[in-house]
Amino acid sequence: MPLPAEIAALVETFAANGANYIASGFKEAQVRQQFIDPLYAALGWDVANTTGYVEAYKEVMHQDAPKIGCETKAPDYSFRIGGNRKFFVEAKKPSVVPKDNPEPAYQLRRYSWSAKLPLGILNDFQEFAIYYTCVKPAAADNAVVARLFDHRDDKPSRHLS
Fold first, then answer.
1. How many CB atoms are closer than 10 A to CB 119?
2. Could you tell me the CA-to-CA distances from 47 to 1, 33, 37, 87, 115 in Å, in that order?
3. DSSP letter string over 75-142?
4. pLDDT tens, position by position, 11-65
5. CATH number for domain 5-152, candidates 3.40.50.1970, 3.30.565.40, 3.90.1570.30, 3.50.50.60
6. How big is the CA angle at 137 (ends 132 and 143), to the nearest 5 degrees?
7. Distance of CA 150 to CAs 22, 53, 68, 76, Å?
8. Domain boundaries defined on the chain
9. What percent of the chain has pLDDT over 70?
10. Helix or strand or coil: residue 30?
11. Whole-angstrom Cα distance, residue 143 to residue 102?
12. How far is CA 39 from the centre of its chain?
């Protein structure tokens, strides 16, 4: 299956201006608006709720609010079918480098594990990592624990630790 033209254009834009996007001043909200939202829209998800569904039935919830312990947390995206959560996506700004940083993975795994979801995705547009989230997360875990797949810089890898 060929890469959709919309995604190819996003990749080209990011590659052409990568130094600007990787700079610490480029914010998470910017990467979400300019790259991550259009990526998932190109994959067929109704990120902008163009169908006009009420909150309970939106395909993509921004800043969903599941309970984690006694707290309410807000993953960046909750992807749903028929109003039922299927997975969370946690977005990070490209300067964070999720592959080497355990905190974003722990955050995503904690959200997903608490919501009893089987997987979660960590995405800063240049990196896309899928985690198996049925394993209870621990703050001491490194970034590869429960990582099923990671794609960064055109070098996909699988980790089944």
1. 18
2. 23, 11, 6, 14, 21
3. -SEEEEETTEEEEEEEE--GGG-GGG-HHHHHHHHHHHHHTT-SEEEEE-SSEEEEEE-SSPP-TT--
4. 999 999 989 999 879 999 999 999 999 999 999 999 999 999 999 999 999 987 6
5. 3.90.1570.30
6. 70
7. 18, 33, 26, 19
8. 5-152
9. 89
10. helix
11. 4
12. 11
Q: Are 135 and 108 contacting, i.e. CB atoms less than 8 angstroms apart?
A: no
Query: What confidence tier does 67 reach under pLDDT thresholds 50, 70, 90?
Result: low
Distances in Å between the alpha carbon of 123 and those of 44, 56, 77?
17, 25, 11
Looking at the chain, how many residues does it have?
Answer: 161
